[in-house]
Amino acid sequence: METEGEEHASKLLRAQNHVWNHIFKFINSLSLKCAIELSIPDIIHNYGQPMPLSQLIASLPLHPSKTSFITRLMKILTHSGFFSEHHANPNQPDVMYLITDASMLLLKDHPFSMKSVTRLIFNPVMINPWFQFSTWFTNETPSPFHRENGMGFWDFAGREPNFNNLFNEVMAMDSRLVSTVVIEKYKRLFEGIESLVDVGGGTGTMAKVIVESFPQVKCIVFDLPHVVAGLEESQNIKYVGGDMLEAIPQADSIMLKMMMLFAAKERYEKEWANLIFSAGFSNYKITPTLGLVSIIEVYP
Ligand SMILES: C[S@@+](CC[C@H](N)C(=O)[O-])C[C@H]1O[C@@H](n2cnc3c(N)ncnc32)[C@H](O)[C@@H]1O
């Protein structure tokens, strides 16, 4: 039984431990970045069986003075669920690694590879604004991103083609995965639709999957002009550049996936966003698990 003093000391240690852990959480994500840059998920996957640490080390472009640190990197990543550790037998001290469902999504050639997400999110353009977070609360700058990069996110994407392409690629990857689920699960919703506008539809990945599965649907992919410029249209897909905060094209259904619907309604008081809200969410399929806000609806 702990004395009052001991109990106080354990509580204090637990609290300190909690703070240390929280402060160092960034090591988890930046270790993941490191592993991806060294192609560790691909190397282990291509090995085709549990990969001994010595083999992994031999396959990496390491400076000889750094080989022992790979064990530490792999400990962090195993603990975070990106690899699993295996021990062949007690006489074989070399630990072996396999990839997990999570690191499968980091493989270069996986159809739903999230590698581009890591390139986008670990980009200083995206990370540095977080260092401005508290300052942002104390002044008028519209977003930490704006404060750090001198303009809003979408303006920045409009001026930096590489960043724009990377962002659109990330969105397309998400849509490739989500569309497979949406088409399967919400088939019913698309069956009666003749026209649909995908507001903020990016480069049209969702729209392409929808018209392939439901050829009666005519899709308008509506997004900022720099996103849709030069994209190839088809009989069922038209691209329209514009600002959803001004107006959106007419269609008998609206699709929003990962869009700022609340901002459109509350900050910008857009009529079309109000319409969605006033119709009552019960009429709409809101599938937060499929994205930040995924709404697929036929209206009126
Ligand atoms: C988070 S992405 C979602 C893209 C796509 N719906 C998806 O889920 O893959 C947000 C999209 O909204 C577009 N966007 C941002 N502001 C916009 C505006 N004012 N008018 C039209 N599109 C806008 C962006 O260019 C971007 O493609």
From TrEMBL:
<dbReference type="InterPro" id="IPR016461">
    <property type="entry name" value="COMT-like"/>
</dbReference>
<dbReference type="Pfam" id="PF00891">
    <property type="entry name" value="Methyltransf_2"/>
</dbReference>
<dbReference type="InterPro" id="IPR036388">
    <property type="entry name" value="WH-like_DNA-bd_sf"/>
</dbReference>
<dbReference type="InterPro" id="IPR029063">
    <property type="entry name" value="SAM-dependent_MTases_sf"/>
</dbReference>
<protein>
    <submittedName>
        <fullName>Probable O-methyltransferase 3 isoform X2</fullName>
    </submittedName>
</protein>
<feature type="domain" description="O-methyltransferase C-terminal">
    <location>
        <begin position="130"/>
        <end position="259"/>
    </location>
</feature>
<dbReference type="InterPro" id="IPR012967">
    <property type="entry name" value="COMT_dimerisation"/>
</dbReference>
<keyword id="KW-0489">Methyltransferase</keyword>
<dbReference type="InterPro" id="IPR036390">
    <property type="entry name" value="WH_DNA-bd_sf"/>
</dbReference>
<keyword id="KW-0808">Transferase</keyword>
<dbReference type="GO" id="GO:0008171">
    <property type="term" value="F:O-methyltransferase activity"/>
</dbReference>
<dbReference type="InterPro" id="IPR001077">
    <property type="entry name" value="COMT_C"/>
</dbReference>
<keyword id="KW-0949">S-adenosyl-L-methionine</keyword>
<dbReference type="GO" id="GO:0009717">
    <property type="term" value="P:isoflavonoid biosynthetic process"/>
</dbReference>
<dbReference type="GO" id="GO:0046983">
    <property type="term" value="F:protein dimerization activity"/>
</dbReference>
<dbReference type="GO" id="GO:0032259">
    <property type="term" value="P:methylation"/>
</dbReference>
<feature type="domain" description="O-methyltransferase dimerisation">
    <location>
        <begin position="20"/>
        <end position="109"/>
    </location>
</feature>
<dbReference type="GO" id="GO:0008757">
    <property type="term" value="F:S-adenosylmethionine-dependent methyltransferase activity"/>
</dbReference>
<dbReference type="Pfam" id="PF08100">
    <property type="entry name" value="Dimerisation"/>
</dbReference>
